[in-house]
Write a structure and sequence with these properties.
- This protein has helices spanning 27-46, 77-88, 110-122, 133-149, 170-189, 208-216, 238-250, 273-282, 320-323, 338-345, 355-358, 378-413, 443-455, 483-503; strands at residues 163-167, 197-202, 223-226, 254-261, 286-290, 315-319, 331-335, 417-421, 427-432, 462-466, 469-475.
- It is an alpha/beta fold and 504 residues long.
- The strands form two sheets. It has a seven-stranded mixed beta sheet, sandwiched between helices. The protein has a four-stranded antiparallel beta sheet with strand order 8-9-11-10, with helices on one face.
- It starts with 26 loop residues before the first helix and ends with a helix.
- The structure holds pyridoxal-5'-phosphate.
- Pyridoxal-5'-phosphate binds next to helix 5.
């Protein structure tokens, strides 16, 4: 168990009273306390492998450990750290553990951490250029850098009509572009046509799109989740899309939005962007590409082809907070027509008016997003790009993909298991093969295997269902994962599978 008390001289209560009042950002106190916090975090990372990866607490555990109301008088920092160790950390699932293989990764790094720290230190609210010119301008520059690294078309760069913006999540990204696309179409066909607007995507697309449709007032029956299957490795078929659009037009509906995914959440399927984009264009639709996870891999020349066709897209999104060493949250969105976003999202109240905005000389990111306030998130992405450099970032991605390949080989060598879909990036989808007389295709067996493996606390994996089959997902991408963690994880899986099969 992490014990941090060594770092403390008994903590002092000088946060509270000096000159009779609170001095919440006194520089000397900040230095002392922040050093202790950094020590705490560094110790956490040193001992991260000692924690169960998946928190093993029961629901409601914390309310049994903490008082009913906030203290009237300050606690010492030492007591608070003790509480963190004894009460908070047991309820943490350790996403940064090298034995974390669930969902998709959510990377931290020293560079990302430092950027977050600086952002917290400056604590600006950069909704308009004037509120901190550096925040807007650094965001534009860093997203241009990343766009160039991904070889996105020039239309996505900030020099023309387009540009990049950091959203909190891919969900917010798809929501804002859906709103822009909806309003663009309604300006053409008339605002009473909302209930005729139709969205197209595959049944593998992240549920974030469905949520965006709910918020955007799109009729649920007008969201086409087009069926995919194993014959196309769960990629969206352009033919199916064409047929569906033609049918919808014939019955008087209005196609307006297509969302393709590069690296779907279940199995990292890649939709064919080029033909899909051409279909969208020929039908006057907005084409959005969600590369939330796999976009990071496309900084490597050998993986860039997975986003070939992105030149047809109106918007493109990747989460730098997933697999690009930028601490959560940092979702990069690029659009070709920034006016389309502003037309849906801008407001211009008196109390925010200023010379630069009125003269149209600057970007005001408040008009590219849902909230008004926004953090200085570009700092952490800038730190990542600067402190690591492109070559190191490419190596980082390649290493994870190599580790996933090694895991895939291990699974393939054990005839009790099967690989379910071909591995493309750093996710392996696999399952324990059921006996021939299994009534549910081994679904319960695999569910059980996942539960027992995760309850060891040694590793954490998640699952999905493809074509009715319950499947285990092994996603490599935590910053500290090495080959020894992958082989140890496989050993846990094999041991638990053996025990499970013996017990049948
Ligand atoms: N799109 C894809 C392909 C994803 O895998 C995910 C999450 O894993 C999302 C969107 C949603 O991400 P966010 O949490 O950033 O909204």
């Amino acid at each position: 168990m992490l014990c941090l008390s060594d770092h403390f001289v008994l903590s002092v209560l000088w946060i509270e009273h000096r000159d009779g009042g609170l001095r919440p950002m006194d520089a000397d106190q900040l230095r002392e306390h922040a050093h202790k916090m950094v020590d705490f975090i560094a110790d956490y990372y040193k001992s991260i492998e000692n924690f169960p990866v998946l928190s093993q607490v029961e629901p409601g555990y914390l309310s049994r450990m903490l008082p009913d109301s906030a203290p009237n008088h300050p606690e010492s920092l030492e007591d608070i750290f003790n509480d963190i160790s004894a009460k908070i950390l047991p309820g943490v699932t350790h996403w940064q553990s090298p034995n974390y293989f669930a969902y998709f990764p959510s990377n931290s790094s020293i560079a990302g951490f430092l950027g977050e720290m600086l952002s917290a230190g400056l604590n600006i609210v950069g909704f308009s250029w004037i509120t901190s010119p550096a925040a807007t301008e650094l965001e534009m520059i860093v997203l241009d850098w990343l766009a160039k690294l991904l070889k996105l078309p020039d239309d996505f760069l900030s020099g023309g009509q387009g540009g990049g913006v950091i959203q909190g999540t891919a969900s917010e990204a798809v929501l804002v572009v859906l709103l822009a696309a909806r309003d663009k179409m309604l300006r053409t066909v008339g605002k009473n046509a909302l209930e005729k607007l139709v969205v197209y995507t595959s049944d593998q697309t992240h549920s974030a799109l469905q949520k965006a449709c709910q918020i955007g007032g799109i009729q649920p029956e007008n969201c086409r989740l087009l069926e995919t299957d194993s014959t196309s490795n769960y990629a969206l078929s352009p033919d199916v899309l064409c047929e569906t659009i033609a049918h919808d037009i014939a019955i008087g509906l209005i196609p307006f939005f297509l969302c393709a995914t590069v690296g779907t959440t279940s199995s990292t399927a890649v939709d064919p962007l080029l033909p899909l984009g051409k279909i969208a264009k020929s039908n006057g639709m907005w084409f959005h590409v969600d590369a939330a996870y796999a976009g990071s891999a496309c900084i490597c020349p050998e993986y860039r082809h997975y986003i070939d066709g992105v030149e047809e897209a109106d918007s493109f999104n990747m989460n730098a907070h997933k697999w690009f060493l930028t601490n959560f949250d940092c979702s990069a969105l690029w659009i070709k027509d920034r006016n389309a976003l502003a037309q849906s999202l801008s407001t211009n109240p008196e109390y925010l008016k200023n010379k630069a905005s009125q003269a149209n000389m600057v970007v005001d990111y408040k008009d590219w997003q849902i909230p008004l306030g926004r953090r200085f998130r570009s700092l952490k992405l800038w730190m990542v790009l600067q402190l690591y450099g492109i070559e190191n970032l490419q190596c980082y991605i390649r290493n994870h993909i190599k580790l996933a390949q090694q895991f895939e080989v291990l699974v393939a060598q054990d005839l009790r298991f099967e690989i379910v879909t071909p591995r493309i990036f750093s996710l392996v989808c696999f399952r324990l093969l059921p006996s021939q007389n299994s009534k549910d295709h081994g679904n319960e067996l695999n569910h059980h295997l996942l539960d027992t493996v995760n309850s060891t606390g040694k590793v954490f994996l998640s699952h999905t269902v493809l074509s009715g089959k319950y499947i285990l997902r092994f996603a490599v991408g935590a910053p500290l994962t090495e080959e020894r963690h992958v082989t140890a994880a496989w050993k846990v899986l094999q041991d638990e599978a053996s025990a499970l099969l013996r017990s049948l």
